[in-house]
Amino acid sequence: MDTRTALLAAAVALLVASAVGAVAAPDALTDPRETDEPPGRIDVAGATVAPGEVRGETAELRLGTDLRHRGSAVENVTVRHRAVGSESGLLVDETTVNVGDVDFEGEHTVNGTVTVEREGGYRIETVIFANGERRTSRTTRVAGVAALTPDYADTRVGFTEGAVWPTVAVSVVDADNETATLSASLSVTNHGDEASEDIDLRLYLRQAESNVIAAEATETVGTVRPGRTDTVTATVEVPDGYNYYVDAALFDDDVLVDETQGVANLNPRETITANETVRDVAFSVEDFQRGEDGAAGDDAADRAPDRDASDDSTPGFGPLVALVALVVAALTAWRRR
C-alpha cells in the first residue's frame, strides 16, 4: 500500500469514528459559545427629562433612559416612551427607540424625545421590551411645561424685581395748566451668562378712569452685561390733573418677553396703585408617586366665607363697640347707686 492510499484510509477511518461518537454521545459536540451563564437581565437604572426645542404651542422633551444589563446578551431590545396628560389621561405622543442586541456590561443611556403641548403636566411612561416581551418600566411626572420659554423669545433680559429699588419710577419734568411732561425710568437686568443684544422697550400711559392711551414711547435697550442692571428712560407728555397706569413691555424682534406696570398720580385728590398680583409657574420633573387618595380635599370649600351672613351688618368694629357701650352703661348705673 502506497503512502497516498494509507493517508486516505486514515482520513476515512477518522470520519467514521467521529460520526459514531456523535451518535453515541450527542452532547459531545456542543457550541463552544454555549455556557451555563444565566439568561440576560435588563432593567432601568434611572431616567431623566430635559427641555428640548420649545415652540409657541408645543415643547420637545428629551428623555434619557439608563439601561442596566447583567448576564448574557439580550436580543432585540426596544424602548417605548409615551406622554400621557396628567389631568385628561389621554395619550399625547409616543415614540419607540430601537436599541438592538444588548451585550454590554454595566449601564448605558438610550436617548429619545416626545413632543407635548406647552401647558399642563404629563406622565412619561417608559417601557423596555426584549423580542416584543415587556421586561421593565419606569414612570416620570413632568409639571409646569407652560413655564418653558419659547426659543424665539429666549432672552435673559427682563425687568428688575427688587424689594426697594423701583422697577418703574416716574417724575415730573415740567408742567403747566394743561399738560405735564413726565420722565419714566425703567430698570432692566440681564439674568444670563452673556451680554445681551438690543431689544425694544415700549411704553403706554393709560388714563386710569377712561382706560384711554394718553401717550406712548419706544426706546432701545442696549447691550447689558451679564448680571448687570441698567436703566432706560423715556419722556412723554400727558394732560395734567389725571392719574395714569404706566404699562411697559420688552420686545425682542416683535416677541413679547417681559412686562411690568407702574403708576403716575397727577390727581392729588385720588390715587391709584399698580396691579402687583403675580403667579409663578415652574417647570419640574419628578418620579411619579401618588396615592389612591391623592386628590385635593375640600379645604377650600371649608375656608369659604359664609354667604348667608347679612349684608346689613354694621361695618368696622360694630359688635366690639356695642359691647364697650354696654359695659360703660353698667358702670355708670353702679356708680349712681
Describe the structure.
- This protein is mainly β and 337 residues long.
- The chain is 14% helix and 47% strand.
- The protein has helices spanning 3-24, 299-303, 318-336, and strands spanning 41-54, 58-70, 74-85, 91-102, 106-117, 122-130, 133-143, 157-159, 168-175, 179-190, 199-207, 213-221, 229-239, 243-252, 255-265, 284-287.
- The strands form four sheets. It has a five-stranded antiparallel beta sheet with strand order 4-3-6-7-16, with no helix packed on it. Strands 8, 9, 10 and 13 form a four-stranded antiparallel beta sheet that branches.
- The radius of gyration is 38 Å and the shape is elongated.
- The model is unreliable at 288-317 (pLDDT under 50).
